[in-house]
Design a protein that fits this description.
The protein is of the alpha+beta class and about 100 residues long. It has a single domain, classed as Alpha-Beta Plaits, CATH 3.30.70.330. It is about 25% helix and about 40% strand. It has 2 helices and 6 strands; from the N terminus they run βαβαββββ. It is elongated, with a radius of gyration of 17 Å.
Length: about 100
Amino acid sequence: MDIQITPIVTEKANRLTEKLNRYTFRVSPDANKFQIKDLVEKLYDVKVVAVNTMNFSGKNRSRYTKAGLLRGKTADYKKAVVTLAEGQTIDFYSNI
């Protein structure tokens, strides 16, 4: 199983990082906490203390077109908040 992980960089996520040393990621919906922990430790070479996950269901969307009303739904996703050990950091902007 291939797990996808993407950092979430928002004002709220940055506040969590600055105050509590927690980093936020968008992960595959079928990933569990142990897999997320292993992946973050391997990718960023840090020590993970805790992982909290949240499941989000997709939103219903609709728009009016010439052909009529089109309805759809955005994808479901899972958000993971990873707490790192004291003194550990992740630099998302190093490769820009």
